[in-house]
Amino acid sequence: MRWRFVFSEMAIGLRRNLSMTIATILTIWIALTGLGAAWLMHQQTNATKDYWFGKIQISVFLTKDVSQPERDAIRSQLQALPQVDQVFYESKAEAYEHFKKQFKSVPALVKNTDPAALPESYRVKLKDPKKFPIVASAVQNMPGVDQVAAEAQALKKVFRLLGGLQNVMLIVAAAVLLASILLIFNNVRLAAFSRRRETGIMRLVGASDIYIQAPFILEISVAALIGGILASGAMFVIKALIVDHGLKAAFGGILTYIGWGAVWGTVPYLILAGVLIAAVTAFGTLQRYLRV
Amino acid sequence: MIRLQSVTKVYPSSARPALDDVTVEIEKGEFVFLVGQSGSGKSTFLRLVLKEDKPSKGQIWVAGKELSRLSHWKVPALRRQIGTVFQDFRLLPNKTVRENVAFALEVIGKPRHTIAQVVPEVLDLVGVAGKEERMPDELSGGEQQRVAVARAFVNRPMILLADEPTGNLDPTTSVGIMRLLDRINRTGTTVVMATHDSHIVDSMRRRVIELEGGKVTRDQSRGVYGYAR
Q1: Range of the domain at A209
Q2: CB within 10 Å: which end of chain B, N or C, has fewer?
Q3: Residues A141 and A284 occupy one common structural domain
Q4: Which of A130, A118, A124, A131 has the alpha carbon at shortest distance from A76?
Q5: Are residues A201 and A232 in the same domain?
């Protein structure tokens, strides 16, 4: 394989169809950004869900002056309920540790909080999170109970928002992806037509299919690669703007957030998906429009 | 070298066959004229030998291979043994003479040092030495056809197919091209040339296969263009 020759043919093609190449890069960029963003949303939702739904659905906060018999009564009442799966006790000290972890991004808040100010609580895991009201009403008025809270209920809104956003992203991505596939199809067809003289001679002198088709496929793959790199850049912008500045500002420490690792994790998939979609579309188009 | 056995070719758009039960054998090293009017089947003959099309009926052997049994991916190897020249030269207008000839070797993956050595040799052989860096549109028709012959011959094929190679050239220039094809034939290359040009056929006195309405009406060694007329 004379790669030098194939690459020079590819470069000629890229320059010749510059406007179409730019259009391809842009649509692939947008399509992959939509896909990647939806994937990030999905991971963000999962990260939060895993944390909250995996551990605790209800917190039963106890009053400051709760007595030991009251504690025991509340625990046995909770454990007696058929809807309850597990009950964990969280002491004041544990509550402070947990608090520190949640708000490690806001050190000032942690510093100004008295460890004794945080209430002790029972953390209750339900068999079915939807049965929350039954459990809540069973212990709400017992002596020693200060407040029954279901963080998970409050978070449902966030999940719904993220889920909706994710679906919108997926629909937009699918539409733009279709557009980019059609664009690649046309782009390759046009390129094959404008170079039919060259390809005709190549066929005649006995060039193999790979030699004839490689410049076209490489050409569009390079466009897709650039689109994939741009989309990867967009992932970092989305993480910074939507997750760090949007969600974190709005919900603070009650959510778990995806880190930069998750963003880096999307990069190879985006680039691979872009190049693969482009190469496969180009290959299919060539089978039809570049008779070998 | 080339053998057609009861070959019929019917194009879907036409009721009349382009080739009708043609049986022809061409030996290695022969020089054969394929004559006949437009539409008599000359070009179909050449296309079938190149496996650009497949026959509707019959079998074709080229360089020892039966073409219908040749798998798709072996077709390039077949075409590397066949050089082809056309009436309209088919040079790439944006490449120089040298690049046009080198292109034929580049696309079959020949190493660069081979190309650098072989291309000047063949350009010298066809008689356009010194014009390596010219563009095709700076050359005369005869010179362009010489470059096209150089491109067809640079890989030293066993067979050279020429479809009306002198069709666009004046008589004097045509004689030059014929001398060139004759020289190539003398190196042992089988040459099959489709032509309308009676003067050339008459002056060369080589084997003549005449096609009419897709049938072979005459196959004569040391023939002339149209003795019946």
Answers
A1: 3-52+155-289
A2: C
A3: no
A4: A124
A5: yes
Task: Report pLDDT digits (tens) over B93-143.
Answer: 999 999 999 999 998 989 989 999 999 999 999 999 999 999 999 999 999
Instruction: Please check the confidence at residue B229 and state whether its pLDDT lies above 50.
Output: no
Q: Closest to B106 (Cβ–Cβ): which among A5, A200, A209?
A: A5
What does the pLDDT look like over B149-192, one tens digit per residue?
999 999 999 999 999 999 999 999 999 999 999 999 999 999 99
Q: How confident is the model at residue B89 (pLDDT cuts 50, 70, 90)?
A: very high
Domain boundary pick from A149, A165, A184: A149
- In total, chain A counts a number of residues equal to 292
B77, B90, B103 member nearest A206 (Cβ): B77
B78 close contact with A: CB closer than 8 A: yes
Got the DSSP string for B19-49? EEEEEEEE-TT-EEEEE--TTSSHHHHHHHH
What are the residue ranges spanned by the domains of chain B?
91-156
Instruction: Choose one of A125, A149, A173: the last residue of a domain.
Output: A149
With an 8 Å Cβ cutoff, the interface of chain A facing chain B consists of: 1-2, 5, 197-198, 200-209, 211-212
Region of poorest pLDDT, from A125-139, A165-179, B140-154, B169-183: A125-139
Cα of A200 to nearest chain B Cα, Å: 9
Say yes or no for a CB contact (<8 Å) between A201 and B104: yes
Nearest CA in chain B to A6: B107
Cβ within 8 Å, pair A204-B79: yes
Burial-class residue A81 by CB neighbours within 10 Å (0-12, 13-18, 19+).
middle
User: Does the pTM of the predicted model rise above 0.90?
Assistant: no
How many angstroms separate the Cα of B183 from the Cα of each of B55, B127, B191, B208, B211? 32, 12, 10, 18, 26
